[in-house]
Amino acid sequence: MTTDWNFEATYLELRDIFYDRGPIHPVDNPTLVLFNDSLAASLGLDAQSVKQDIALLAGNRQTETSFSQAYAGHQFGNLTMLGDGRALMLGEHVTPNGKRVDVQLKGSGPTEYSRGGDGRAALGPMVREFIISEAMHALGIPTNRALAVVQTGEAIMRQGPKHGAILTRVASSHLRVGTFQFAAGAGSIDDVIALTEIAIKRHDPDLIDAPDCYEQFLGRVVERQARLIANWQLVGFIHGVMNTDNMFISGEGLDYGPCAFMDTYHPETVFSSIDRDGRYAYANQPYIGSWNLARLAETLLPLLGETKEEAVDVANKQLTRYTELYKEAYFTGLAHKIGLFVRKDGDDTLTNELLRLMVETEADYTNTFRSLTLGEMESLPFATREDGKAWLGAWRKRLSEQGLPDEDVSRIMRQYNPAVIPRNHHVEKAIQAAERGDFGPTEALLTILRDPYNYDHPPEYVSAGPPRTYPYQTFCGT
Ligand code: AMP
Ligand code: MG
User: Fold this and answer.
1) Annotated catalytic residue: which of 84, 102, 204, 245?
2) How far apart are the first and last CA of the chain?
């Protein structure tokens, strides 16, 4: 059964410090350039009627349920007041199955929270966000999703004029760690309670009647983040800007701006041009996850105990679970990536030794696991080194203890090792073509990335791309 939009706005039950309902900023000549038919179908929407209603996707028509959200956030460690400076929530769409999702426009014009920005977005970064979020979803990693990109027909100024665009994105909610920081900083304890109640209703309704629901809620966020970040590490994904305003309490990833997937494996890899100290380097992501969760816990302290000491103990009890949960998810995932399905003592040493070899031989992250999956040892850059041969020998010996035929191991490994990821050179080419008005390469890339565990894609999608004479850099901008 398909329907039209069915918007509600339970978020507006919060006090009005939490949102801005200012005027919309229509654009003259919007054109739909990308649309996600399968997402529309999964939301119970009739794709044709959603596409035809371009005024809605362009932010030209206000809904009764629209608003922009206030939030704060630690940006590179510094707490700042933020908010949706260029985003407009159209509302919470309730699907025919009763699922509630936020539908938000990004790039829809200035709001109370724009802080001098133009409230707009450029086409290139919105195409990037579309591509990366679809790739993440197909990899099985929780993420917000992109429904549409509309070109506004207006030029915006970045470094030179760029095509303006609006992305429609869908998330199970847009409640961030930064939303809680805003409530605790700008509001009262009652505001923190009201926000937490809304969050529990949306994400953890089974906790509504639990006597320790606030503690358990914190625990759930800890669990979701530990899993999300372990998943990112396992596919070599670097988010680039893990500020607390870019961390959803739903455990979905968002804001794929300066992010990229690693080609050559190195734990210190940083892509973002503004991350000069490597705060958000690949190997730091798990620690940043924990740091961000501590910021969430601080906002909840008044709800967690009668005294400050008691509350801190409760918060710490949940926060310390993060490291264990993360390690469990990460090392189990790594073991699966090398075909070990029941983790045993010694396996973490084996996987760590593989990672060391990969660093030393500047191995491609994705293709190393791909080669191991396919048994193409000759293409491993460490295959002829003594320590590489020793590792392969130890690995085979460990595999043989499982007693599974090689074909079965390889078949199962494919489920844990994507054959294709959004390679930076493909993403860049797709974006450049889109900027020239050709969305063919983006659509072609999306088709491949929507099927990442298929090992039969053309070789050009598998290759790491031409060697670079300078490190790959991404830009927050937007
Ligand atoms: P982001 O880096 O996309 O997570 O954005 C950080 C903050 O800057 C958010 O509060 C955004 O709403 C705001 N922001 C980013 N770009 C613009 C823009 N062009 N105009 C107004 N606000 C913006
Ligand atoms: Mg953001």
Assistant:
1) 245
2) 37
pLDDT at 470 > cutoff 90: no
pLDDT at 418: 98
CA dist 404 and 400 (Å) reads 7
The answer, as to whether pTM is greater than 0.85, is: yes
Rounded distance from Cα 477 to ligand 1 centre (Å)? 9
Tell me the pLDDT of the chain averaged across its residues: 96
- The pLDDT tens digits for 345-358 are 999 999 999 999 99
Compute, in angstroms, the gap from residue 358 CA to the centroid of ligand 1. Answer: 37
* Substitution candidate for ligand 1 out of 114, 152, 177, 243 with most atoms within 8 A of CB: 114
User: Residue 231 has which token pair?
Assistant: 């998943």
Between the CA of 85 and the centroid of ligand 1 the distance, in Å, is 5
| DSSP helix/strand/coil, 63 | coil
Model pLDDT for residues 414-459, shown as the tens digit of each residue? 999 999 999 999 999 999 999 999 999 999 999 999 999 999 999 9
C-alpha distance from residue 474 to each of 182, 265, 425, 463 (Å): 29, 17, 12, 20
Active site residue 245: yes
Q: Is 435 helix (H, G, I), strand (E, B) or coil?
A: helix
pLDDT per residue as tens digits for the range 204-225: 999 999 999 999 999 999 999 9
Find out whether the beta carbon of 74 lies less than 6 Å from any atom of ligand 1. Answer: no
Cβ–Cβ under 8 Å, residues 466 and 435: no
User: What is d(CA 476, CA 478) in angstroms, rounded to the nearest whole number?
Assistant: 6
Yes or no: say if 181 and 293 are a contact pair by the CB < 8 Å rule: no
The Cα 256–Cα 131 span in angstroms is 9
Write down how long the chain is: 478
Half-sphere exposure of 395 (CA within 13 A, CB side): 26
Token reading at 417 = 């090792």
The single-letter DSSP state of residue 282 is: G
Q: Quote the CA–CA distance of 475 and 25 in Å, as a whole number.
A: 26
d(CA 457, CA 326): 32
Q: Residue 65 contacts by C-beta under 8 Å, 6 or more apart in sequence?
A: 7, 8, 9, 12, 89, 90, 91, 92
